[in-house]
Fold this protein.
Amino acid sequence: MATMTYLQAISSALRDELRADERVIVMGEDIGVFGGAFKVTDGFIEEFGPDRVMDTPLAESAIIGTAVGAAVVGLRPVCEMQFSDFISCGFDQLVNVAGKMHYRQGLAVPITVRLPSGGGFSGGPFHSQNPEAWFMHAPGIKVVAPSTAHDAKGLLHSAIHDPNPVCFMEHKHLYRRVKGEVPDGVYETPFTARVARPGRDLVVIAYGAMVEVALEATADLDGAAVEVLDLRSLVPLDEAAILDSVERCSKVVIVDEANATCAAGAQVAAVIAQHGFESLDGPVVRVATPDVPIPFSPPLEQAVLPSVDRVREACRELLAY
Amino acid sequence: MATRIAEPATGGPSAASAHLQPEDRVELLRAMLLMRGLEERAMTLYRQGKVPGSFYDGYGQEAVSAGAAFAMGPRDRLCILHRDLAAHLIRGVTPARVLGQYLGRETGVTRGRDGNVHFGDWRLGCVGMVSMLPDMMLVATGMAMAFKLRGEARCAITWFGDGSTSRGDFHEAMNWAGVQRLPVIFVLENNQYAYSTPLDKQFAVDPVQRAAAYGFAGVTVDGNDVEAVFEATRAARQRALAGEGPTLIEAVTMRMHGHAAHDDMKYVPKEQVEEWRKRDPIDRQSARLSELGVDVEAVRAAVAAEIDAATEEALAAPMPDPADAASGVFCEGEAEPLGDGRAPWSGFAQEPGGEA
């Protein structure tokens, strides 16, 4: 066990995989000599060389497309989008080539795409997005989103070992803010939800950076026992864990940092409406970013991203329902 | 830009004869005949309402896929376009599976999951195309990247059309392959029209000239001469295996049918079609082989019988089970990489490990 930041845990997973499996390569813009925009791969090129720690041309479609080609002839590429926002330029290769490959042809595409996501730092409309729902809607792609250092490492190992395309949503705001105990060596975290804090009066369902927000907002909520369910994986979505929490708590607040419409939380709400209706003692409440681009100026950005106060208020209102 | 038409030629010797044994030259003809015959049969089945969706063929372009695929070794890997059926046949996909594919049967290569020539038998080293052209240029580039990274003497090949040269993935693939000097062959199948759009609305500079801008060789070849296409591809593969990087081969040909079965091609001048009909690739190879004393009619008869048998087999095959429609989205087991394909060129048999 070692104490690591979320970012160090991601680096550690990549380093362990590169050491353990010669099929693994990492590729992306500025990840080699420079060590990555966020320094996730700092020092890698010295240890593993420029072939396995590949500085690529500035071409996101090509990063995904060549990774698909390399994967189907036996490599295990891990692609870095410098910011998750840039995956829009690689969307076609991911959705149409990688995502549909196994269904159409029975050919597995074991690639991992790392997507540094999320806002909170005046990154503006092109460096702050949470695009996970785009890929939840595209068959054949798994989507995971860790909230802790432990899960960041374990989920990344699982993603690299998985025979399918996996979008690994790593939240930039957690990189250096979140620290935790991380086991030594390679371990897998399953693509299932985790109860971050058990409770019985209300459950807050969240993932990624919103798990921290949910925990803080409900740590001391007028004595209520509030459960926090950390989804960890969006595809597959752990419907059993969701329904289990709903049955136990009967009241649900769902938090997304992503834009509200058709977000992951919308799917969670649909699952609860269809399969958990009898357990509910109140409306399903959602807290999410409204359907606007993420603004640059701090007061504007803070006005749209779900805050501790907004989540706390939503929980209070629902508890009183 | 003027429409590009290859030099007229009928029969006669080819530059490739030094690398082709008589049985190779017959095999090239056979692959083209099989492609044309199967596509004609599929068109008949389409008109009978037995082929769902639409139907696309490569009538008149058979030399491009036959010639290029014939130069590929068993461990090479291919991303094949929709007018390139001969490449699948050379690689070892059986005619009955091809017809089963068109008919949407369980026995088709994609088991009814995808239609027409949207397939690739991964066990034979092929990845099926997607409709967003030319996405597969990047996939082929990635295969070549892996080969180079592992120090393997293998190469990847992909086909795409003149319309594809307008999209960003064409540039990204050419650039990436040039920067990393990868063993990949890009076959630009210039068939004069992208659906209804002629070349002069597609590019201002002949795209073969762009190869130089990406730092590698670009060659233009008569796309209706199967032996010339073979020879250009063989040379490109040699360059690739020697570490000399990618090659762009522009195979100049003509799409003799509409974009798909519904398209009457009224936007193409009749004289243009008639001019190209004189350069039919199958007629040319037949004439060449007749001069060599090959019984071409016997080859035709054997192919026709093969197609009849395949039709019977495909029509008797079951449709996929609707209960199975949602299965197979994800791989549940181990990821298996592409397998090796058939590589009938006699040149491979002469080399250790079949890698000429």
Q: What stands out?
A: DSSP finds twelve helices and eight strands in chain B.
